[in-house]
Design goal:
By secondary structure, this protein is mostly helical. The protein is 29% helix and 6% strand. The chain contains 8 helices and 4 strands; from the N terminus they run H-E-E-H-H-H-H-H-E-E-H-H. A two-stranded antiparallel sheet has the order 1-2. Strands 3-4 form a two-stranded antiparallel sheet. The longest helix has 22 residues, at 2-23. The radius of gyration is 20 Å and the shape is globular.
Length: 264
């Protein structure tokens, strides 16, 4: 009986792996180095090809701030270069300038900490970031894919305490807005372990507004989610496979054993 159960689990894993290889696109299927996972190249509007893009490294911010703080309160788009950040915006305290004021984080005057002067300097910044990432990684729980850092466990264990409020920018969240539901989902692909969606784990990082109502319907089960759509960057794929844990970390979502009536 145990052998049959193991065989079914193996078959499900093979099927899911084939599914990703057939339908996976973009970063969901690409091999990305752990220190580069979640990196976003930010081009400078109006500069054309005259300046090198800034590399925004999510890992250097994730331990300090929630996703919601940047993408809701500071209004950063979830699409690369969808915000159109201008130097004037930053100097007026918007976007990066909300933190990079010399108090919350280093001041805007330290331009070359983000903006490479030339190709050589760009490589130097990348190498420095790689060293800093490896040092950070030593202090945090490990995972298998993506950054190979288990950010959720780090937050749950109190190793990191992401800030979710900026004075003068954020509004205090109501203590009544608490959602700790664990919602089961049945995969459309037979044989896979069932999905457990945890609102509690997502609310810590995202609040409600990053998901509802634009990406997911408010009513449970009303959003037609497919794995193909996720690998194309829709629904869960807006974060997972780009910033949050990678899609090949299957058992982080498919975590409930398959109920097999043939096994006693």
């Amino acid at each position: 009986m145990m052998k049959r159960a193991m065989t079914k689990t193996l078959q499900a894993g093979v099927i899911f792996g084939l599914f990703l290889s057939l339908y996976g696109t973009g970063s969901a299927s690409a091999a990305v180095k752990s220190h580069e996972y979640g990196n976003v190249l930010m081009s400078q509007p109006g500069k054309g090809d005259t300046s090198l893009p800034v590399t925004f490294r999510h890992w250097s911010h994730r331990g300090k701030y929630t996703c919601r703080l940047c993408h809701v309160d500071l209004e950063f788009s979830q699409l690369a270069n969808g915000t159109g950040v201008m130097e004037e915006d930053n100097r007026n305290g918007l976007y990066c300038g909300a933190c990079h004021n010399g108090k919350e984080a280093f001041a805007l005057e330290a331009c070359t900490r983000c903006h490479p002067k030339d190709k050589q300097h760009e490589q130097e910044l990348a190498q420095q970031a790689k060293r800093e990432f490896q040092e950070l990684k030593k202090t945090l729980p490990h995972s298998t894919y993506g950054n190979k850092i288990d950010w959720m466990k780090a937050e749950q264990d109190g190793v990191i305490k992401p800030k979710d409020f900026l004075e003068g920018v954020s509004l205090r969240k109501s203590d009544k807005m608490v959602n700790v539901r664990e919602e089961p989902r049945t995969p459309t692909l037979a044989g896979l372990p069932n999905i457990i969606f945890s609102h509690a784990k997502h609310v810590v990082w995202n609040g409600c507004g990053m998901c509802h109502p634009d990406t997911f319907a408010l009513e449970s089960g009303k959003t037609p989610i497919t794995m193909k759509a996720i690998t194309e960057g829709k629904f869960c794929g807006r974060c997972h496979g780009t910033i949050a844990f990678a899609l090949n970390d299957c058992t982080r979502c498919h975590s409930k054993p398959v109920l097999n009536p043939d096994l006693k």
